[in-house]
Structure formats: structure tokens, C-alpha cells
Write a structure and sequence with these properties.
single chain; 114 residues; mainly alpha
Length: 114
């Protein structure tokens, strides 16, 4: 997302951070096991494959085509999301170190006072 969000529409929070914990708690999601990512656009919370679709829909270029996955039936979407999540390192690779954000990137992460 960071690479493709040239318009900087997205802000980020880790699920383990205070804002992330508060959001997960408000949505009645577990605050110790994180099985989904969340995307909030125009006040609407999207989870799992719907989160991916919502994010793709607002990116520039050809990315919105990938948002069509939102039309898949739930019995296909959820297993597909979990299969991709389980195999994400095989599909997308794994890094030896975590991203260390520079000050410009760090400013896109939601702080405690969101």
C-alpha cells in the first residue's frame, strides 16, 4: 500500500498499538489475536478480502480492477482470504528485517490521540 498510495489517502495503525487496540475493542474483535486487517473508508469498516477490495478501489491506475473480488460470495471470500493469509510469505516473499519508517512515513501512522 505504501508504494502505491501516491496520494497518501491511507493512514496506518498496527493492531497492537493503543489506537489499534481501541479500534479492535470497539469492533468486538479479539485484541490478542489478529486474524484480519481492517480498512476504514468514509467511516465504513471493511475486513478480510472486503478490506483488500476497498483499498484497491481507491488506488490509482489499474488497481481498482482487483476490487471486483468484493462481489464473490462469502463462502468463497473467507476461505480465499485465509488461504492467502496462510501462504503470504510463499506468495509475496519474506523480509529479513521489519520496515523501519523514516519521519515522513512515520507521520502516516495513527498516534495515540487519533
Amino acid at each position: 500500500m505504501l508504494r502505491h498510495d501516491r496520494g497518501q489517502r491511507f493512514s496506518f495503525a498496527t493492531a497492537q498499538s493503543p489506537p489499534g487496540q481501541l479500534l479492535y475493542s470497539r469492533l468486538n474483535l479479539p485484541t490478542d489475536e489478529f486474524e484480519t486487517n481492517l480498512v476504514i473508508i468514509d467511516g465504513k469498516v471493511h475486513q478480510r478480502l472486503d478490506a483488500y477490495a476497498a483499498a484497491m478501489r481507491v488506488l490509482p491506475g489499474a488497481w481498482p480492477v482487483l476490487s471486483l473480488c468484493r462481489f464473490l460470495p462469502e463462502f468463497v471470500k473467507n476461505p480465499l482470504y485465509h488461504a492467502i493469509a496462510r501462504n503470504r510469505y510463499a506468495l509475496f516473499g519474506r523480509y529479513e528485517t521489519c520496515l523501519v519508517p523514516d519521519p515522513a512515513l512515520r507521520s502516516r501512522f495513527v498516534s495515540d490521540g487519533f
